[in-house]
Amino acid sequence: MKDHLIALLEAVRLARLELECHRDPQCRAREEWTIARLSALLESADVNRAMKALVPDEGSPSIVPEVRGTQVQPIKLMNH
Length: 80
Hints:
Elements: H1 2-23, H2 31-42, H3 45-54
Helix pairs in contact: 1-2, 1-3
């Protein structure tokens, strides 16, 4: 279990660094690059194994709220 927590904490730490780089005018990573890096970090085999071990019956929660009888449209992000 300790190894699973370490894998998740490391993924969060690296994801935060990627977001800092995206916001930093000196680094200023493109949105596509940042999303690709975040996907690689958060969807890695280590993170998937850790999630499966720590929360075996849970899938990833949707970020779109569930509303019965109404379709919710995802928010489109503005390009800068």
